[in-house]
Amino acid sequence: MDSKPLKFIADAMLGRLARWLRILGCDVVYEPFISDDDLIAKAIHEHRIILTMDRRLTERESAKNSLLIKSPDYKEQLKHVIAYYTIDCKSGIFTRCLLCNTRLDTIDKEQIKDKVPPYVYSTQHEFDICQQCHRLYWSGTHRTKMLEMLDQILK
Ligand SMILES: [Zn+2]
User: Fold this and answer.
1) Residue 126: pLDDT band by 50, 70, 90 thresholds?
2) In the prediction, which pLDDT does 3 show?
3) Helix (H, G, I), strand (E, B) or coil at 105
4) Which domains does the chain have, with CATH numbers?
5) Which one, 9, 24, 67, 81, has least CB within 10 Å?
6) Which residues place a Cβ less than 5 A from the ion ligand 1?
7) Mean pLDDT across the chain, nearest whole number?
8) How far apart are CA 75 and CA 17, in angstroms?
9) 131 CA to middle of ligand 1, Å?
10) pLDDT at residue 1 above 60?
11) E strands within the chain?
């Protein structure tokens, strides 16, 4: 295995794919309003693989480090990327902020008492926080659903 984790940048068409890759813990930049030129520049500068549905973009000399995504279905897209780059779906799952792509940190339960619904506070024990956008994450039915969906996708 490559010791450096893969980093991606996804084009505007691939929002759901970007979100799912973040669920798996992948570092994915997703800026839907970025221009093609800026997207390529950022990919080169930050050593990111470009994920795109735009064939012409992948044919540009400067965008060689890219993967053309053909399916319009995000489940197929995810399957494709996972298989192509042999992404480990288990070790990094739920470690990244789905909104801003930052790695999550664990946070003491006492510190977030007033910031989550009482039911969540009384039933959950482990919480993660995004230091960038301050969103809180915890296990629960939404994560169970994501895992079920992932099993289905990878089947
Ligand atoms: Zn965040």
Assistant:
1) very high
2) 54
3) strand
4) 7-84 (3.40.50), 105-154 (no CATH)
5) 67
6) 97, 99-100, 102, 130, 132-133
7) 95
8) 8
9) 7
10) no
11) 7-10, 27-30, 49-52, 66-68, 105-107, 127-129, 136-138
